[in-house]
From TrEMBL:
One of its GO terms (cellular component) is nucleus. Residues 77-134 form the CTLH domain. It comes from Brassica campestris. PROSITE patterns: CTLH, LISH. Signal peptide: none annotated. It holds the Pfam family LisH. This is CTLH domain-containing protein. One of its GO terms (biological process) is proteasome-mediated ubiquitin-dependent protein catabolic process. PANTHER family: RAN BINDING PROTEIN 9-RELATED (PTHR12864). It comes from the Eukaryota. Coiled coil: none annotated.
Length: 242
Protein backbone atom coordinates (compact mmCIF):
# COMPACT_ATOMS: atom_id res chain seq x y z
CA UNK A 1 0.00 0.00 0.00
CA UNK A 2 2.83 2.44 0.80
CA UNK A 3 4.14 2.13 -2.75
CA UNK A 4 0.82 3.20 -4.24
CA UNK A 5 0.63 6.16 -1.90
CA UNK A 6 4.00 7.32 -3.22
CA UNK A 7 2.48 7.81 -6.66
CA UNK A 8 -1.02 8.83 -5.59
CA UNK A 9 0.30 11.62 -3.39
CA UNK A 10 2.82 13.10 -5.82
CA UNK A 11 2.71 16.90 -5.99
CA UNK A 12 1.64 17.11 -9.60
CA UNK A 13 -0.11 20.23 -10.79
CA UNK A 14 -3.88 19.74 -10.32
CA UNK A 15 -4.74 21.39 -13.61
CA UNK A 16 -2.41 19.09 -15.54
CA UNK A 17 -3.86 16.05 -13.78
CA UNK A 18 -7.34 17.09 -14.82
CA UNK A 19 -6.39 16.81 -18.49
CA UNK A 20 -3.74 14.07 -18.54
CA UNK A 21 -2.36 11.21 -16.48
CA UNK A 22 1.20 10.76 -15.36
CA UNK A 23 2.99 8.05 -17.31
CA UNK A 24 5.17 5.79 -15.18
CA UNK A 25 7.60 3.63 -17.13
CA UNK A 26 8.29 0.01 -16.27
CA UNK A 27 11.84 0.91 -15.25
CA UNK A 28 10.66 3.61 -12.87
CA UNK A 29 7.89 1.40 -11.48
CA UNK A 30 10.20 -1.55 -10.85
CA UNK A 31 12.71 0.77 -9.18
CA UNK A 32 10.03 1.94 -6.79
CA UNK A 33 8.90 -1.65 -6.16
CA UNK A 34 12.43 -2.78 -5.38
CA UNK A 35 12.79 0.08 -2.92
CA UNK A 36 9.98 -1.34 -0.78
CA UNK A 37 11.61 -3.63 1.77
CA UNK A 38 9.60 -6.54 3.14
CA UNK A 39 10.85 -8.57 6.07
CA UNK A 40 11.01 -12.30 5.43
CA UNK A 41 9.59 -12.88 8.88
CA UNK A 42 6.48 -10.89 7.99
CA UNK A 43 6.01 -12.87 4.78
CA UNK A 44 6.43 -16.16 6.64
CA UNK A 45 3.85 -15.07 9.22
CA UNK A 46 1.43 -14.24 6.40
CA UNK A 47 1.90 -17.68 4.85
CA UNK A 48 1.47 -19.43 8.21
CA UNK A 49 -1.70 -17.43 8.89
CA UNK A 50 -3.17 -18.65 5.60
CA UNK A 51 -2.24 -22.29 6.20
CA UNK A 52 -3.62 -22.29 9.73
CA UNK A 53 -6.85 -20.48 8.90
CA UNK A 54 -7.60 -22.65 5.86
CA UNK A 55 -6.75 -25.81 7.79
CA UNK A 56 -3.70 -27.13 5.92
CA UNK A 57 -2.26 -28.76 9.01
CA UNK A 58 0.39 -30.90 7.29
CA UNK A 59 1.62 -27.97 5.23
CA UNK A 60 1.63 -25.75 8.32
CA UNK A 61 3.69 -28.28 10.28
CA UNK A 62 6.20 -28.62 7.44
CA UNK A 63 6.39 -24.85 7.00
CA UNK A 64 7.02 -24.46 10.73
CA UNK A 65 9.95 -26.89 10.55
CA UNK A 66 11.44 -25.26 7.45
CA UNK A 67 10.96 -21.60 8.34
CA UNK A 68 10.88 -21.64 12.12
CA UNK A 69 7.61 -19.69 12.03
CA UNK A 70 5.44 -20.49 15.02
CA UNK A 71 1.72 -20.90 14.28
CA UNK A 72 -0.74 -18.70 16.14
CA UNK A 73 -2.66 -21.69 17.52
CA UNK A 74 -1.94 -25.29 18.42
CA UNK A 75 -1.79 -27.29 15.19
CA UNK A 76 -3.63 -30.15 16.90
CA UNK A 77 -6.75 -27.99 17.01
CA UNK A 78 -6.62 -27.67 13.22
CA UNK A 79 -7.10 -31.41 12.84
CA UNK A 80 -10.24 -31.30 15.00
CA UNK A 81 -11.58 -28.28 13.13
CA UNK A 82 -10.99 -29.88 9.75
CA UNK A 83 -12.78 -33.05 10.90
CA UNK A 84 -15.86 -30.92 11.55
CA UNK A 85 -15.55 -29.15 8.22
CA UNK A 86 -15.09 -32.42 6.33
CA UNK A 87 -18.13 -33.96 8.02
CA UNK A 88 -20.34 -31.09 6.82
CA UNK A 89 -18.85 -31.23 3.33
CA UNK A 90 -19.69 -34.94 3.17
CA UNK A 91 -23.24 -34.37 4.38
CA UNK A 92 -22.70 -35.94 7.82
CA UNK A 93 -24.24 -33.06 9.74
CA UNK A 94 -25.14 -34.96 12.93
CA UNK A 95 -21.53 -36.10 13.21
CA UNK A 96 -20.36 -32.52 12.65
CA UNK A 97 -22.62 -31.18 15.41
CA UNK A 98 -21.28 -33.78 17.84
CA UNK A 99 -17.71 -32.87 16.98
CA UNK A 100 -18.41 -29.16 17.44
CA UNK A 101 -19.92 -29.83 20.86
CA UNK A 102 -16.89 -31.93 21.78
CA UNK A 103 -14.64 -29.00 20.88
CA UNK A 104 -16.70 -26.34 22.63
CA UNK A 105 -20.43 -26.61 23.42
CA UNK A 106 -20.70 -22.83 23.66
CA UNK A 107 -20.08 -22.45 19.92
CA UNK A 108 -23.59 -23.60 19.03
CA UNK A 109 -25.20 -22.44 22.27
CA UNK A 110 -24.22 -18.85 21.55
CA UNK A 111 -24.70 -18.91 17.78
CA UNK A 112 -28.35 -19.68 16.94
CA UNK A 113 -27.87 -18.75 13.28
CA UNK A 114 -25.07 -21.28 12.84
CA UNK A 115 -27.07 -23.98 14.63
CA UNK A 116 -30.08 -23.29 12.43
CA UNK A 117 -27.98 -23.53 9.28
CA UNK A 118 -26.55 -26.85 10.42
CA UNK A 119 -30.04 -28.16 11.11
CA UNK A 120 -31.18 -26.79 7.77
CA UNK A 121 -28.32 -28.67 6.09
CA UNK A 122 -29.38 -31.79 7.95
CA UNK A 123 -32.90 -31.35 6.55
CA UNK A 124 -31.47 -30.92 3.06
CA UNK A 125 -29.53 -34.17 3.42
CA UNK A 126 -32.72 -36.02 4.42
CA UNK A 127 -34.48 -34.65 1.35
CA UNK A 128 -31.49 -35.58 -0.81
CA UNK A 129 -31.77 -39.16 0.45
CA UNK A 130 -35.49 -39.28 -0.37
CA UNK A 131 -36.55 -39.58 3.28
CA UNK A 132 -39.63 -37.42 2.83
CA UNK A 133 -41.56 -38.37 5.96
CA UNK A 134 -38.50 -38.12 8.17
CA UNK A 135 -37.65 -34.77 6.61
CA UNK A 136 -41.13 -33.36 7.27
CA UNK A 137 -41.06 -34.59 10.86
CA UNK A 138 -37.61 -33.13 11.42
CA UNK A 139 -38.63 -29.79 9.92
CA UNK A 140 -41.72 -29.61 12.11
CA UNK A 141 -40.03 -30.61 15.35
CA UNK A 142 -36.59 -29.02 15.04
CA UNK A 143 -36.81 -26.10 12.62
CA UNK A 144 -40.38 -24.80 12.72
CA UNK A 145 -40.12 -23.57 16.35
CA UNK A 146 -37.02 -21.58 15.44
CA UNK A 147 -38.78 -20.17 12.39
CA UNK A 148 -41.57 -18.88 14.58
CA UNK A 149 -39.02 -16.88 16.57
CA UNK A 150 -37.06 -15.54 13.59
CA UNK A 151 -38.53 -14.36 10.30
CA UNK A 152 -35.28 -14.95 8.40
CA UNK A 153 -35.15 -18.54 9.64
CA UNK A 154 -38.78 -19.05 8.62
CA UNK A 155 -38.06 -17.89 5.06
CA UNK A 156 -35.08 -20.22 4.79
CA UNK A 157 -37.14 -23.10 6.16
CA UNK A 158 -39.95 -22.49 3.67
CA UNK A 159 -37.42 -22.40 0.84
CA UNK A 160 -35.90 -25.69 2.00
CA UNK A 161 -39.24 -27.49 2.44
CA UNK A 162 -40.15 -26.34 -1.07
CA UNK A 163 -37.70 -28.97 -2.33
CA UNK A 164 -40.35 -31.56 -1.44
CA UNK A 165 -42.95 -29.93 -3.68
CA UNK A 166 -41.11 -30.65 -6.91
CA UNK A 167 -40.95 -34.10 -8.43
CA UNK A 168 -37.47 -33.34 -9.68
CA UNK A 169 -35.94 -30.96 -7.11
CA UNK A 170 -32.71 -30.79 -9.13
CA UNK A 171 -34.56 -28.74 -11.74
CA UNK A 172 -36.55 -26.60 -9.29
CA UNK A 173 -36.12 -22.90 -8.46
CA UNK A 174 -34.54 -23.91 -5.15
CA UNK A 175 -32.14 -26.46 -6.62
CA UNK A 176 -29.14 -24.45 -5.33
CA UNK A 177 -29.81 -25.92 -1.87
CA UNK A 178 -28.90 -29.36 -3.19
CA UNK A 179 -25.69 -28.14 -4.76
CA UNK A 180 -22.39 -29.08 -3.14
CA UNK A 181 -21.64 -25.36 -2.88
CA UNK A 182 -24.32 -25.09 -0.18
CA UNK A 183 -22.55 -27.73 1.88
CA UNK A 184 -19.31 -25.82 1.42
CA UNK A 185 -20.97 -22.59 2.51
CA UNK A 186 -22.24 -24.21 5.70
CA UNK A 187 -18.86 -25.83 6.32
CA UNK A 188 -17.12 -22.47 5.97
CA UNK A 189 -19.55 -20.93 8.43
CA UNK A 190 -18.76 -23.64 10.98
CA UNK A 191 -15.05 -23.24 10.34
CA UNK A 192 -15.26 -19.48 10.98
CA UNK A 193 -17.22 -20.00 14.20
CA UNK A 194 -14.65 -22.45 15.56
CA UNK A 195 -11.80 -20.08 14.71
CA UNK A 196 -13.59 -17.23 16.45
CA UNK A 197 -14.09 -19.37 19.56
CA UNK A 198 -10.33 -19.98 19.56
CA UNK A 199 -9.66 -16.21 19.42
CA UNK A 200 -8.30 -16.57 15.91
CA UNK A 201 -9.23 -14.53 12.88
CA UNK A 202 -11.92 -16.27 10.88
CA UNK A 203 -10.52 -15.16 7.51
CA UNK A 204 -6.91 -15.40 6.31
CA UNK A 205 -5.09 -12.11 5.83
CA UNK A 206 -3.69 -12.89 2.37
CA UNK A 207 -6.97 -12.59 0.38
CA UNK A 208 -7.69 -9.27 2.12
CA UNK A 209 -4.28 -7.94 1.12
CA UNK A 210 -4.89 -8.96 -2.48
CA UNK A 211 -8.22 -7.12 -2.42
CA UNK A 212 -6.39 -4.07 -1.10
CA UNK A 213 -3.92 -4.36 -3.98
CA UNK A 214 -6.75 -4.37 -6.53
CA UNK A 215 -8.37 -1.40 -4.79
CA UNK A 216 -5.09 0.52 -4.77
CA UNK A 217 -4.55 -0.12 -8.48
CA UNK A 218 -8.06 1.10 -9.24
CA UNK A 219 -7.40 4.27 -7.28
CA UNK A 220 -4.10 4.88 -9.02
CA UNK A 221 -5.67 4.27 -12.43
CA UNK A 222 -7.43 7.62 -12.07
CA UNK A 223 -4.13 9.47 -11.81
CA UNK A 224 -1.48 7.53 -13.70
CA UNK A 225 -0.65 5.07 -16.45
CA UNK A 226 1.68 2.38 -15.09
CA UNK A 227 2.45 -1.38 -15.25
CA UNK A 228 -0.33 -3.44 -13.66
CA UNK A 229 -0.46 -6.77 -11.88
CA UNK A 230 -3.37 -8.33 -13.73
CA UNK A 231 -2.77 -11.95 -12.78
CA UNK A 232 -2.54 -12.25 -9.00
CA UNK A 233 -1.45 -15.88 -9.24
CA UNK A 234 1.84 -14.92 -10.93
CA UNK A 235 2.29 -11.32 -9.80
CA UNK A 236 3.81 -10.46 -13.18
CA UNK A 237 3.75 -6.83 -14.28
CA UNK A 238 1.89 -6.05 -17.48
CA UNK A 239 2.66 -2.94 -19.49
CA UNK A 240 -0.35 -0.68 -20.03
CA UNK A 241 -1.81 -0.51 -23.54
CA UNK A 242 -0.23 2.22 -25.65
Amino acid sequence: MSLFRIFINQDDDDDDMATSKKVITREEWEKKLNAVKLRKQDMNTLVMNFLVTEGYVDAAAKFQRESGTKPEIDLATITDRMAVKKAVQNGHVEDAIEKVNDLNPEILDTNPELFFHLQQQRLIELIRQGKTEEALEFAQEELAPRGEENQAFLQELEKTVALLVFEDASNSPVKDLLDISHRLKTASEVNAAILTSQSHEKDPKLPSLLKMLIWAQNQLDEKAVYPHINDLSTGQLQDPPE
